[in-house]
Design goal:
binds zinc ion; binds D-xylitol-5-phosphate; single chain; 215 residues; alpha/beta; 35% helix; TIM Barrel; 8 strands
Length: 215
């Protein structure tokens, strides 16, 4: 089963509520919520307040924390209604495992992400305590970029690492995903697709989601 998680970063903020409803009515599985702190990545995006509004909607919120010291904020994002919380291996450093455990203790699904130039071996020691692995297919920080082709090899590598460890977490990809690149990502082993620009630019959002889910 392929899950689709449209990223709100690419929404038209003048009609934010309608854009959220568009994601829900498209049949998407989750709402991807990009949190940026101006330090882990240059930009600053959304925080916990807006999440409390979104989490009242009938869809799971997939929180992607592009922040330093994620351990300090897990409880707040969990209390605000996140279903998935993904942290970056590069941000959590030696505290990755403890932070992932904390996410689960707070009742959420725990995800770990690696940037394009971080090898998948860097997360090998936490594979058995994650529900989701997010392979960044662009440098995190902004929407509308082109997928970096070599990142799809990392999807294959992480898939075989999971087989080696006999675990089966969700494998999510994020960045530059459109109808064509989604196909390549699914072939490589991804089963959860984040799409920002491509989703919000699609003529027919429902059709877009249906196409991705049928890959
Ligand atoms: C990038 C974010 C992505 C971004 C994806 O740092 O993590 O979720 O919104 O946007 P597109 O699909 O436009 O590449
Ligand atoms: Zn993201």
């Amino acid at each position: 089963m392929i899950r689709v998680s449209p990223s709100l970063l690419a929404a038209d903020y003048r009609k934010f509520g309608d854009e959220v409803d568009k994601v829900i009515s498209s049949g998407a599985d989750a709402l991807h919520y990009d949190v940026m702190d101006g330090e882990f990545v240059p930009a600053i995006s959304f925080g916990q307040g807006l999440l409390s509004f979104l989490s009242k909607k009938p869809i799971d919120v997939d929180v992607h924390l592009m922040i330093v010291h994620p351990e300090k904020h897990i409880k707040e994002f969990a209390d605000a209604g996140a279903r998935y919380i993904t942290i970056h291996q590069e941000a959590a450093g030696f505290g990755t495992a403890d932070t992932l455990k904390l996410i689960r203790e707070c009742g959420c699904l725990a995800g770990v992400s690696v940037k394009p130039f971080t090898s998948v071996e860097a997360i090998e020691d936490v594979l058995d305590i994650v529900d989701l692995i997010l392979i960044m297919t662009v440098e995190p920080g902004k929407g509308g970029q082109k997928l970096i082709p070599f990142t799809l090899d990392k999807v294959r590598q992480v898939k075989s690492l999971c087989e080696k460890h006999a675990v089966d977490p969700i494998i999510e990809v994020d960045g530059g995903i459109n109808t064509e690149t989604a196909n390549l990502a699914v072939d490589a082993g991804a089963n959860m697709l984040v799409a920002g620009s491509a989703f919000f630019k699609a003529q027919n959002a429902e059709e877009f989601v249906k196409n991705l889910k049928s890959l």
